[in-house]
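User: Run a structure prediction on this.
Assistant: Running it now.
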Amino acid sequence: MIRESARALADLRIVHLNATPDGGGVAEILQSLVPLMKHAGVNVDWYVLEGDDDFFRITKMLHNQLQGEPGELSLEETDIYLRRNERIYDAMRDVGADLWVIHDPQPAVAGAMLDGSSMKVWRSHIDTSTPNQTAWNLLAPHVSQYDAVVYSHESFCFPEGAFCVGLYQSPCNR
């Protein structure tokens, strides 16, 4: 059944992008998913973004704020986040893919920068149903640029009235 489903993807190059090669839930998923997809005949690759300690500290704060934690990024922290995403995007342009699957907020802005020649999916593994408003204001314009948004659970969707397309049916639609 998996190979039959994979045939529909036979002509596509799919690339997953996340923040770490190990030590997190997304990495654990991709360590199994990517080899399974390859074994089923899908042309798939997995890339890990480059970031420094400041970037990962900032994206951890953003990650927590998207889950409702109070606070906000400073202008300097926002600038670091956006500039690193520009560099991630520059590296992505050289890779080429028919479908990008961008995991979580760390590379979300970079994925949004991709032009219309590739489909792009933002895969959120966190509960963003009640985000901190400042974090929401930073990320939402970028995530709205994706062709689809996929959540781990239907209750994790951004607030009602926002975009919510993809894996789950939800009251919020793009």
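The longest helix spans residues 75-93.
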